[in-house]
Every structure is written in structure tokens, then in C-alpha cells.
Amino acid sequence: MEPEAAAFLKRVANSLVIAFIWLAVNATAAIKGDNAFIGEQITIGNILFYVWFIISVVILIILYKKIWRINN
């Protein structure tokens, strides 16, 4: 296999693994911890979950930019 193709497939695989782990962590925290659902009132768990969610999205975007940088 050509080195460019192997590097591209490695980037794709890394992107998929990172996305799956991110999704699993956030889904577990949201559903199992019952933090994504706002009931009668907003709890500290809801606030912490949504703050974590926004921070983790920013980190995910930074990681994707690092992985998909043109001059690797």
C-alpha cells in the first residue's frame, strides 16, 4: 500500500475511534447519570454535564484539526 494511502486510512481510523469514545462517554454521562434531562428544576449535575459537553466538543474539534492538519 502506498504511504499516502496508509497515512490517510490511519487518520480516518483515529478519527472514528476518537468520535466513538467521545460519544460513548457523553452518552453514558447523559443517560446513565440522568444529567442530560432536566426535570422539575435544573440541578448541579445538569450544569456540570452541559459545561463538560461544550468543553469536550471544543477538545474534539482541536483534536480533529490536529489529526487532519494538511502538513502532517
What would you note in describing this structure?
The radius of gyration is 17 Å and the shape is elongated. The mean pLDDT is 92. Helix 1 packs antiparallel against helix 2. The protein has 72 residues and is mostly helical. It contains 2 helices and no strands. The longest helix is centred in the first third of the chain and has 30 residues, at 3-32.
Summarize the structure.
The chain is an all-alpha fold. It contains 2 helices and no strands. The two termini are about 20 Å apart.
Note the topology.
Blueprint: H1 3-32, H2 44-67
Helix pairs in contact: 1-2
Cα end-to-end separation: 18 Å
Kindly report the average pLDDT value.
92
Instruction: Give the topology string: H per helix, E per strand.
Output: HH
Return Rg in Å: 17 Å
Q: What structural class do you assign from the helix and strand content?
A: mainly alpha
Number of E strands: 0
What form results from the Cα inertia axes? elongated
**Hey, roughly how much beta strand do the residues contain?**
under 5%
Instruction: Enumerate how many helices there are, as a single number.
Output: 2
Q: Which regions contain 5 or more consecutive residues with pLDDT less than 50?
A: none
**What proportion of the residues is helical, as a percent range?**
over 70%
Largest sheet: none
